[in-house]
Amino acid sequence: MIQQRTFLAAKVALLLLLFWLFLQNLGFIPVVLLIVVMWRWYRRFHAVRVSLWVVLILAVGWLGFKSIVLPPKGPQGELVAQDEDVWTSEIIANGVSIVNLNRTQGVYHRDGHPKTLGCALATFTVKDLSNLELSQPISLQQGVFKTPRQYKAWVRFSGGSPQIQGDWKPDARGVAIKLLGVDGDKLLPGMEKLRTQDFLMINNPTFFVDNVADYLALTRLQVKGYQQNSAALVFRYFFQDPSGSVWHPQAWKLREMREAIALLGWPPKNVLADRFYSMSAYTLGATGYVKYSLRPAPCSEGEGTASSWLWSFSGDALRHRLQSSLKEGRACFDFMIQPQNPEKNMPVEDLTIEWREKDSAPIPVARLEIPKQDIDPQLKSGFCENLSYTPWHALPEHRPVGGLNRLRRFVYEGISNYRHCMNKTALTEPPDDGSPVLPGNPCDATQPAPAEESSSLVSSVTSGKEKALKQ
Ligand code: HEM
């Protein structure tokens, strides 16, 4: 009897050890051993059968919950990985390949968000924020939010997939807002005198990639997928470890896959009735980190918001709905700032972790109003296609932060440069008065520069960080 108990204890210890090895990311080997041991137990000790299954179910349940639902704790501040600049260069090169592979009728489109649903002239009215009582020690009156005033703005709505596709396919939708006539030096070296401030958002609060190294892995698979005409290849991203092996279940990105499914939200809805999020973080002067979002709002009391129905199964249903909605009347959004609450899990480096609104409520700081209008002319003239947005068209008070934002600085610049030069269009900003023109000479480089030397730029961004934060 005693012997049998000792034997049982030894087996339980072995079981725990194997489970622990599994947690240590040692892949399938301990899992196979675990199954073998359990099988032998199952046959020899009928009495422990039930408890074994309970242990197994609990373990699998816990692992599932941990890897699919529970967000990890992320760092609250910025952390620059050592090889970010090297990864950035390859990501730009992969972006150029994606642009080349996805061009249509000789036109080179954006790497991300190439499908223009429409672009409209809007107004962006900053509220008087001087008397707001805030629960956190942050001052909202920074940069463009310093004083109440109205800006003209070009708003472009887009489909996110790198390939231009039908609107009923699952996809993220984007909105990019370009404020015009913004005074003050901007962040990008050589572009300080630009008079625009851009805000870019997508209709989901989180992204499914949390760092630059993973983004590189994703773009490698994207390029391969487009070359081999296999859209499914990109799903390997969620099942491979940094070496590319898929045999380590602990490295599978199941939570990220859940975020990706949410990002590709379906069914599509009228973009004027959608909610958009910056997903990544920004500084707000020297007072802290924030994220932005956009929420449909009635333009005046009792007016109602746009209906989310598309009323069509056409491949361009979103574009048609946007056109018809704006022909019928105006649409408004509240532009909101969500300050980081340092007491909560609201990291700036990991975009897969949602900044929960119960941890810090977004505050409406401006009103975006898109007046009734016909958006056809600027769609047909190519004006929307030729606009260039980047989160780095920004005042220093609104500096983008976090790894993917540092990456975006070089990628947007590089890709925008590349597509404008290949299309022989002007790479400029629209004038303050809201005319739908992009003045300037078309880029005619026989060898367009994909991007500046990213390594020196990455270090200049990161050393500039301290300076910008102290402002
Ligand atoms: C993290 C949050 C992100 C948001 C909210 C976002 C949003 C957007 C939006 C709305 C656009 C369309 C801009 C337009 O209308 O012209 C866009 C374009 C683009 N995005 Fe992102 N994006 C994000 C992350 C990224 C990342 C991590 C990359 C890759 C490094 C990326 C690469 C691009 C590129 C290359 C373009 C096209 C730029 C051009 O040629 O003008 N985005 N993004």
Question: What distinguishing features does this structure have?
Answer:
single chain, 471 residues, alpha+beta, Catalase HpII,  Chain A, domain 1, ten-stranded antiparallel β-sheet, 10 strands, disordered C terminus, binds protoporphyrin IX containing FE
Describe this structure in words.
- The chain has helices at 2-23, 28-44, 49-69, 84-101, 212-227, 254-263, 317-328, 376-380, 383-386, 403-423, 454-470, and strands at residues 115-126, 150-159, 173-179, 197-202, 276-277, 281-283, 289-297, 331-339, 363-370, 400-401.
- 35% of the residues lie in helices and 14% in strands.
- Strands 1, 2, 3, 4, 5, 6, 7, 8, 9 and 10 form a 10-stranded antiparallel beta sheet that branches.
- With 471 residues, the protein is α+β, with helices and mostly antiparallel strands.
- It folds into 2 domains: 2-69; 84-470, Catalase HpII,  Chain A, domain 1 (Beta Barrel), CATH 2.40.180.10.
- 40% of the residues are buried.
- Mean pLDDT is 88; it is low at 451-471.
- It is globular.
- The termini are far apart.
- It binds protoporphyrin IX containing FE.
- The site of protoporphyrin IX containing FE has 30 residues, from helix 4, strand 2, strand 3, strand 4 and helix 10.
Can you summarize this structure?
With 471 residues, the chain is α+β, with helices and mostly antiparallel strands.
Write the layout of secondary structure elements.
Layout: H1 2-23, H2 28-44, H3 49-69, H4 84-101, E1 115-126, E2 150-159, E3 173-179, E4 197-202, H5 212-227, H6 254-263, E5 276-277, E6 281-283, E7 289-297, H7 317-328, E8 331-339, E9 363-370, H8 376-380, H9 383-386, E10 400-401, H10 403-423, H11 454-470
Antiparallel strand pairs: 1-2, 1-9, 2-3, 3-4, 5-7, 6-7, 6-10, 7-8, 8-9
Helix pairs in contact: 1-2, 4-5, 4-10, 4-11
The structure holds protoporphyrin IX containing FE.
Residues 91, 95, 110-113, 156, 158, 174, 176, 200-202, 207, 215, 278-280, 351, 387-389, 404, 407-408, 411-412, 415-416, 419 line the site of protoporphyrin IX containing FE.
